[in-house]
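Quick one - inputs below.
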Amino acid sequence: DTEVTQTPKHLVMGMTNKKSLKCEQHMGHRAMYWYKQKAKKPPELMFVYSYEKLSINESVPSRFSPECPNSSLLNLHLHALQPEDSALYLCASSQEGGLAGKETQYFGPGTRLLVL
Amino acid sequence: QKEVEQDPGPLSVPEGAIVSLNCTYSNSAFQYFMWYRQYSRKGPELLMYTYSSGNKEDGRFTAQVDKSSKYISLFIRDSQPSDSATYLCAMISIQGAQKLVFGQGTRLTINP
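Output:
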């Protein structure tokens, strides 16, 4: 089973709201990722967690706050977002965040976020 | 110059045709190569993963890597309307932070 699940599928929020995106995988993967994807563009990496520790933050604004409560779960907390943050937010996981076949990333279906 | 170049298309071909999708890259440290398929409003789905130069076949899909030319391809045989999607090449460097670097994606339409 190579499934990564994400909730909610769709989210509409105002600029003053606080919301969270959730991601879950049960493949025993130890690396998890958040990506942002705008229309007709490739995914852009936001954060990487490896063994539940934040290993990469691609200079993402602090209004996005990731959290990895355990090896299967990844959250993205959202606060005071801007309309330009509207996008598809993708979660992915890989075996260890290393090389040699272990780096294959499996993506979830995404959460489509609209900020009004 | 982008690290990975991929023609965004759109590419439209008749059903049954052989489709060729390509990416070029500039960084010789890229050693691991992937092709993802992404349907509209869905997450990317891994199609092929290759490391060595040469061909790798999986059903109607063949991935080809030419490291000397820094060129990768995905061939789709007997294309079907269900193959209509955006195809993203992606690669990982063995140096520095091991992040996926994506091409722009090629939008493909297979016409019945």
